[in-house]
Design goal:
- By secondary structure, the chain is an all-alpha fold.
- It contains 6 helices and no strands.
- It is globular, with a radius of gyration of 19 Å.
- It has a domain of 97 residues.
Amino acid sequence: MSLAVSWLALAGIAIMAWGAVGFLQKISATLLHPSVLLLWVIVGLLLGSVALLAWLPAVRPTMSASILILGLACGLTNAVGSWCLFKALDRGAPASLAIPLTALYPLMTVALAVGFLHEATSPRQWAGIVLAILGGALLSFERAPPGNG
């Protein structure tokens, strides 16, 4: 089976999958403590990854100390971010605000890529970054509850 799918189609699938994840995280955060939820997310990720690796064409893994450290750093930072999101949802954050706001994480990626990898960013991309920041700021303002104003 060929997996020659365009990057744009793959990005669309990622958007749909992560959109569903945000919805499921909010439901789960109302039922589970953030630490327990993180455990089950890791179990689900592990099981899903094993199934996906079994389905995908075989690729010979590369192993070195730097790859191991980077992989562990990716997992650790992902776990910290996930736990903080789950805790925010547990503390009553509306999914319609918290999930999109935390989805602005690519802004951190841009800052790190520009600062450490010396990647170039065009004026159009900077405009998009500014709009994303403004969008995050607009998302973060919550309406005051009735009777408090």
